[in-house]
Write a structure and sequence with these properties.
Blueprint: H1 11-36, H2 39-46, H3 50-56, H4 60-77, H5 92-103, H6 112-122, H7 130-153, H8 156-161, H9 165-186, H10 192-209
Length: 210
């Protein structure tokens, strides 16, 4: 790797070029999938030479992984945090409703990491893509955060009796939002409030039955 990309100016200029490449790759991957994304297409879409792409990214696999990372970091920064303030005395259902009312409304924006990540999960290849590993690791981290949030609302008796319940509910929340995201790609007629109430009802019943 050279000290700077060909023709690069300031650090800000380099970051602008890097983001142009990431956005071009995201558009192409969303349209053509992983296999259909090529460095040649990225250079044409971004208007930057291949030498610039390879200065920032060692290969296509690394580029797509960085597309997911860049998109995820932008998306997660705008999300409500799955952390319970010890001073927050709201019941579980009310707290869950407040978080979901913000998070599910971001789904129609179709973050690249969700669209491309789901594509990668459905594709199979002999060598697992770095981007697929990143997407799975990110989902695991999110699931752990949600599970910790649920656990913070459980009394010690429920946690001892059903230690797996918090993670089961976290995975259910993620699976449900996955389904809502995919459904929105097919038909944009959806009511987030109805969806939220269904999820809250499922969680309340599971906790009561625990």
């Amino acid at each position: 790797m050279s000290a700077a990309p060909p023709g690069a100016g300031s650090a800000d200029d380099r970051e602008i070029s890097r983001v142009r490449i990431l956005r071009a790759a995201a558009e192409i991957a969303s349209e053509c999938g992983y296999e259909g994304t090529t460095i040649s297409k990225v250079t044409k879409r971004s208007g930057l030479p291949a030498s610039s792409v390879y200065w920032f990214f060692r290969d296509k696999d690394h580029l797509i992984a960085e597309v997911l990372r860049h998109s995820f970091e932008q998306w997660i920064a705008a999300q409500p945090r799955w952390e319970r303030d010890p001073r927050d005395e709201r019941p579980l259902a009310e707290g869950l409703r407040a978080i979901l009312s913000r998070s599910v409304r971001t789904l129609p924006g179709a973050p690249d990491f969700l669209r491309i990540g789901h594509m990668l999960l459905l594709e199979s290849r002999e060598v697992e893509a770095e981007a697929r590993r990143y997407f799975l690791a990110t989902r695991d981290a999110v699931a752990n955060n949600i599970a910790a949030w649920f656990s913070a609302h459980f009394d010690t008796e429920l946690q001892a009796r059903r230690p797996e319940l918090a993670m089961d509910l976290a995975r259910m929340v993620i699976a449900s939002t996955d389904g809502l995201f995919l459904a929105h790609q097919i038909d944009d007629e959806w009511d987030p409030d109805d969806f939220i109430e269904i999820i809250v009802a499922i969680v309340e019943q599971a906790v009561a039955a625990g």
